[in-house]
Amino acid sequence: MAAALFLHHPPTPLPAENPLPMRNCATTTATNNNINNQIQPHPCLLSLEKCSTMSQLKQIHAQMLRTGLFFDPFSASKIVAFCAFHDSGSLPYARLVFDQIPNPTTFTCNSVIRGFTNNNLPRQAILFYQLMMLQGLDPDRFTFPSLLKSCGALREGKQLHCHSTKLGFSPDAYVQNTLMTMYSNCGCLVSARKVFDKMTNRSVVSWATMIGAYGQWDQPHEAIKLFRKMEMASMKPNEITLVNVLTACAKSRNLETAKQVHKYIDETGMGFHTVLTAALMDVYCKCGCYPLARDLFDEMPEKNLFCWNIMINGHVENSDYEEALSLFNEMQLTGVKGDKVTMASLLIACTHLGALDLGKWLHLYIEKEKIEVDVALGTALLDMYAKCGSIGSAMRVFQEMPEKDVMTWTALIVGLAMCGQGGKALELFDEMQMSGVKPDAITFVGVLAACSHAGMVDEGIGYFNSMPNGYGIQPSIEHYGCMVDMLGRAGRIAEAEDLVLNMPMAPDYFVLGGLLSACRIHGNLDAAERAARELLELDPSNGGTYVLLSNIYSSMKNWEAAKKMRELMVERSIKKPPGCSAIEVGGVVHEFVKGDVSHPQSSEIYEILDDMICRLKLAGYVPDISEVLMFDMDEDEKDNELSLHSEKLAIAFGLLSTAPGTPIRVVKNLRVCSDCHSAMKFISKVYDREITLRDRNRFHHFKEGSCSCRDFW
Questions:
Q1: pLDDT digits (tens, 9 = 90+) for 641-652
Q2: Exposed, middle or buried by CB within 10 Å (0-12, 13-18, 19+), for 162?
Q3: How far is CA 712 from CA 398, 454, 668, in A?
Q4: Distance from C-alpha of 43 to C-alpha of 224, rounded to nearest angstrom
Q5: Which residue has the higher pLDDT, 471 or 670?
Q6: How confident is the model at residue 16 (pLDDT cuts 50, 70, 90)?
Q7: Quick one: three-class SS letters along 448-509?
């Protein structure tokens, strides 16, 4: 083959009976040098090396046909190779050229097959191989790797495996590595591992391929186990191996192995290339070591979009939503544009912050940058609008989505339920089934919540009972929690208690907390004490149980019992988590805690707050001091204590910073107290404002003095 690079026509062999006469050695050497100097590539082949377009190639092809050079197999193969591999090549033309070659070589056949494979035309590659075999052209060790990459079906892959074995190529390392990749892509890890185990000389590529296969098919523990064997075999990993190992570590949350890989990179001086650093960042984020991930990120000299996405999503997973949004701003300043992955993470951040204006801006960014709104991004967009209280916008996003999966339908059902539109949620559930989408367990959580908030108890019981037989879904503890909440809201405390006693699993805090809340609303002290007793056994350090039971005692004027609960909290060093309320104004999220004076406009906020309380009292508002846990205060002090609640401060800031008539949206991390709920109703009427308050459990839409929850939350 090497000689053919210059000799385009085979030399005539010398007859054995007429050998060359013996010559002087020096004369022979000089003659050979003269011959080598005279042998030069044909001008057409030199032109081919400089060719960059199909138009130029066709001219060269025509010249080769005129001179007869094309009929030399090697020269013809150069034409085929250009058409198959060059960016401006043409596979159809390569196929036409191939058909003109009288005696094509295996190299030429391989060029066509590889061209089809590289251009994502696997069917044509397989069909061409079949034609090659019919024409009696023999494959070589370079034929099968490209063919195996084109296999989309296991049956075809196994047939090619048999061919390679019969033709004696199965021991070849290159063929074996692509066999493993083929079996992995077809989901047959057992066969991939058999190929790996039979290899006599495993290269680093072989180890990396098998480790990557386990990671690809969610068997990260097997991937890490094989990496340990690789270490024992004294095989040094390359960058691809380490990326595959780190991917497995991220899936299995194996922080220890990831740190060992990090140490290995440091000690060997391998260097933190972008892909490797990104894989390490991903592990640290998945394992909750966000500062380590951020350190790596900040030290990177160059960051691609993948790195930005990992870090932004890491901050979102760490509930550091403001930092995620800040990082996106920094990303924009560097000139990197976000994609659908970036947008989905940022929309989740806006959802948790209740930052509707920022969410709307991201929606406009998606449209401006023409980012593809696939099912995942569309669902994130819908969920953001729904959980920020803009259910109309959520409905519009839903209707504009060309494709919807079960998560899309579920997000809107849950959103409608949270916004107190249980009837519409159930209508959507029926529409979902009519469209052919099968509900899952999460869908039924939304359906049962909708029934609970809408007071549709009998319908809720019907849906709950239909889950095992009608849909093949066994109710989980979340579904039982919804049922307890539903029965409790309706005042059917005894039935709720009975359901808790007969659950197939032990009740959790959500189930018992729902029962305790229902007891507070309906004044059932006996049941409340039983539920509280179980809650304290479950989690003795949870301050919410003490507070809620104390509030129940206070509402029944049992001050002594309420005081004992408060003293018990002090004795056990239990503190209620601080309430925090957030309001978005002008695209900026402002957070307040009880009695907050850290805001730059605190003096103006408190002036508005004092005026607001006065106006509310004139309208008939009476502070509900039953939930104030300070027993050494008089009533005026308790009134003042209530006025400092975080949601009232957020509302005061909203009144200060927005034009009259503008809707106000507040997000609170805890359940809204009875007094603030009452005050919000008065504010909506006195100031003629629509107020949306999202607390830990649901949305409260206040308008003209009433709330969408109908005073049950």
A1: 788 899 999 999
A2: exposed
A3: 29, 10, 17
A4: 55
A5: 471
A6: very low
A7: HHHHHHHCCHHHHHHHHHHHHHHHCCCCCHHHHHHHHHHHHHCCCHHHHHHHHHCCCCCCCH
* Tens digit of each residue's pLDDT (9 = 90 or more) over 518-573: 998 888 999 999 999 999 888 888 888 888 888 888 878 788 888 888 888 888 88
Which one-letter DSSP state was computed for residue 440? -
The pTM of the full predicted model, rounded to 2 decimals, is: 0.79
Give the number of C-alpha atoms closer than 13 A to the C-alpha of residue 151, restricted to the C-beta side. 26
Q: What is the DSSP letter of 625?
A: G
Alpha helices in 186-304 (DSSP H): 189-198, 204-216, 220-232, 239-252, 255-268, 274-286, 290-299
In degrees, to the nearest 5, what angle opens at C-alpha 121 toward C-alphas 115 and 126? 85
| CB contact set of 105 (below 8 Å; sequence gap of 6+) | 73, 74, 77
CB burial class (10 A; 0-12, 13-18, 19+) of residue 255? Answer: middle
**φ, ψ dihedrals at 51, nearest 5°:** -65, 140
What percentage of the chain's residues is helix, strand, coil (to nearest 5)?
A: 65, 5, 30
Q: Which residues of 633-644 are buried (b: 16+ CB within 10 A; e: fewer)?
A: eeeeebbebbbb
Residue 174 phi, psi (nearest 5): -65, -45
pLDDT at 609 over 50: yes
Task: Decide if pLDDT at 83 tops 50.
Answer: yes
Confidence of residue 627 (pLDDT cuts 50, 70, 90): low
Q: Which two tokens stand for residue 97?
A: 């050229």
Residue 4: the pLDDT is: 32
Which residues make beta-bridge pairs with 702?
A: 691, 707
Distance CA(307)–CA(367), nearest Å, equals 23
- For CA atoms 119, 124, 130, 135, give the dihedral sign: negative
Phi-psi region of 319 (alpha: psi -120 to 50; beta: other; left: phi over 0): left
The long-range contacts involving 631-635, CB below 8 angstroms and separated by at least 24 positions, are: 631/559, 631/562, 631/563, 631/566
DSSP annotation string for 557-586: T-HHHHHHHHHHHHHTT--PPPPEEEEEET
Tell me the C-alpha distance between 231 and 212, whole Å.
16
User: In whole angstroms, how far apart are CA 430 and each of 413, 425, 472?
Assistant: 11, 9, 17
Query: How far are the Cα atoms of 455, 482, 522, 556, 697 from residue 517, in angstroms, in the given order?
Result: 16, 13, 9, 15, 11
Residue 705's alpha-carbon distances to 216, 416, 581, 616, 644, in angstroms, are 56, 21, 21, 11, 21
In 386-402, which positions are buried (b, 16+ CB within 10 angstroms) versus exposed (e)? bbbbbbebbbebbeebe
- Phi and psi at residue 234, in whole multiples of 5°? 60, 35
Residue among 60, 55, 89 nearest 75 (CA): 60
Q: Residue with structure tokens 């003096």?
A: 603
- Rounded Cα distance, 616 and 682, in Å: 6
| CB neighbours of residue 685 within 10 Å | 18
Q: Residues 420-431: what's their mean pLDDT?
A: 92
The candidate with the shortest Cα–Cα distance to 407, out of 385, 380, 434, is 380
Percentage, residues of the chain above pLDDT 90: 71
Whether 419 contacts 407, CB under 8 Å: no
DSSP designation for 520: H
Q: How far apart are CA 327 and CA 294, in angstroms?
A: 11
* Interstrand relation of 706-707 and 664-668 (parallel, antiparallel or unpaired): unpaired
How large a percentage of the chain has pLDDT more than 70?
Answer: 92
- The DSSP-derived string for 333-347 is HTTPPP-HHHHHHHH
Secondary structure tally for the chain: helices H, strands E: 37, 6
Question: Residue 21's pLDDT is what?
Answer: 38
